[in-house]
Amino acid sequence: MIPYQFGYHRPGSIAQAQALFSSLHDARFLAGGQTLIPVMKQRLANPAHLIDLSRLEELSLVAAEDGAIVIGAGVRHFQVEDSPDIRRTIQALARLAGTIGDPAVRHLGTLGGSLANNDPAADYPAAVLGLGATIVTTNNVIAADKFFSGMFQTALQEGEIIKTVSFPAPLRAGYAKFPNPASRYAIVGVFVAQTHAGVRVAVTGAAPCVFRTTEMERALSIRFEPDSLSDVRLSSDGLNSDLHASAEYRAHLVTVMAKRAVTAALDGQSSPIRE
Predict the structure, then answer these.
(1) How do residues 79-135 score in pLDDT, each as one tens digit?
(2) CA separation (Å) from 174 to 111, 116, 182, 220, 221?
(3) Sheet strand arrangement including 134-137
(4) ∠ CA 29-34-40, rounded to 5°
(5) Domains defined for the chain, CATH in brackets
């Protein structure tokens, strides 16, 4: 085993976390650790210091406010799945959280950690972009359409911390994904939301970064039914291609998963969630 040492810090507040980040050389924030720790084990990242945000009360908020659900960056996946407020207001978001990884991952991973990492196959980016959420950080208020900028890249600046995410309550919404059978990451996942401002369709897993498909949004704006997408064909140009699925197959899956997401949105109010 290759020896590897690093400093571990557990601040008591966001302000202390930022002060530590500014004073330490080569520091990284640690949320749930479900991405950073495995990467460190593979020696693909070697930070000199870890600043643990996982127990900050400031990041643990879940509240229904003015037609939206506000979720703290430190809220874990299982808490999103189990929250009565989230289930009642955005059932599709609770369902999405329940599909992430396995129970161990869901009890450690956090909303903020997932968004800050922006893995191309993560589930939460699809919900954030599909619902037109707002990301509140220590420095800025960032709209979902401006937050995700590329593979593992976001609008976050050095040392900036996600505090909360505000999800507007949709008229209806649904999420469907074709998961990798081992990791449960999305080979393709599609989040569809009918909102007061129109229809939004966000796709994860298919490309280097989560994206919206305006052609599907236009079709569903005319008629919010699965069959409205039957003639929509996504180009495979620029899509991911690997041992799990070719770009062409991913393009096909986007339409299939989008149809299932619309069906889930139409049936969502009466479908039970796992207890």
Answers:
(1) 999 999 999 999 999 999 999 999 999 999 999 999 999 999 999 999 999 999 999
(2) 18, 23, 23, 13, 15
(3) 62-65, 68-72, 162-168, 134-137, 141-143
(4) 70
(5) 7-51 (3.30.43.10), 58-267 (3.30.465.10)
